[in-house]
Amino acid sequence: MHQLVYRSLALDEDFGDSDLDILLKALTFNRENQITGFLLRGREQFFQALHGPREVVLALMQRIHHDTRHREVEVLLSEDTDEPTPFRDWAMGYNYVAEDELGLALSAEGIRPEVSPAKARELWLEMVEQAQSESEWGGGSPYSRKPAESVDAWIQRLSAARSH
Ligand SMILES: Cc1cc2nc3c(=O)[nH]c(=O)nc-3n(C[C@H](O)[C@H](O)[C@H](O)COP(=O)(O)O)c2cc1C
Question: How big is the CA angle at 136 (ends 17 and 134), to the nearest 5 degrees?
Fold first, then answer.
C-alpha cells in the first residue's frame, strides 16, 4: 500500500459545482479502487490524504496533478506502508478547514509556508483524526458527510445538490 499527502491552490470558489464534481468523482472512483482518504477544503487551498494500492494511488496522483481545478500541487509526504487504512470507510472524507488554524495559510504576498516532514505528518494525522471522529461529520461544509450517513446516501445527496 501507499499513502500520501499534498497541498494545492484551488482555482474555483468553494461550495460550488467544481468541488461537488471533485467529491463525487473521488467517492465513486476511490470506492471501486480500494482508495480511502480525506480532502480538506480551505478558502484558497486543498489538502488531501490518499491511502491505497501503490500503483492506483500513484496513477491517481498523476491525474490529480494535471487537474486544471487547482495548481501548484505539492506532495508533502509519500511513502509505502503495511498499515491498513486509518480512514475506515471513507472513500473520501471532506471538510472545510480554516487554513490559519492549520498554520498553513498563505502570506499576504500569497506565499505558502514551508512544510517540514514533521508538519506534513501532523497534517496527515489531523485528517485521520477527522475521519475517525464522528462528531466531525457534517462539520464545516454542507457537502460533508452527515452523522451515520451511508456513502450511498451521501453520494445521492451530493448529486442532487449539483445545479444542472
Ligand atoms: C483537489 C482534487 C482532489 C481530487 N481527488 C480525487 C480522488 O480522490 N479520486 C479521484 O478519482 N479523482 C480525484 N480528483 C479528480 C482527478 O483529478 C481527475 O479529474 C479524475 O481522476 C478523472 O480523471 P480523467 O478525467 O483523466 O479520467 C481530484 C481532483 C482535485 C482537483
Answer: 120
Q: State the closest ligand 1 atom to the C-alpha of 67, by its place in the atom list counted from 1.
A: 17
Instruction: Name all domains of the chain by residue range, CATH numbers in brackets.
Output: 2-161 (3.30.70.100)
- Helices 17-32 and 151-161, packing angle to 10 deg: 150
Q: If you take atom 16 of ligand 1, which residue's CA is the nearest one?
A: 64
pTM of the model: 0.94
pLDDT tens, 103-117? 999 999 999 999 999
User: Do 21 and 34 meet the contact criterion of CB atoms below 8 Å apart?
Assistant: no
Average pLDDT over residues 58-77: 98
C-alpha distances out from residue 75 to 3, 115, 130, Å: 11, 10, 20
For residue 49, the SS3 value is strand
CA dihedral 91, 136, 119, 36 (to 10 degrees): -10
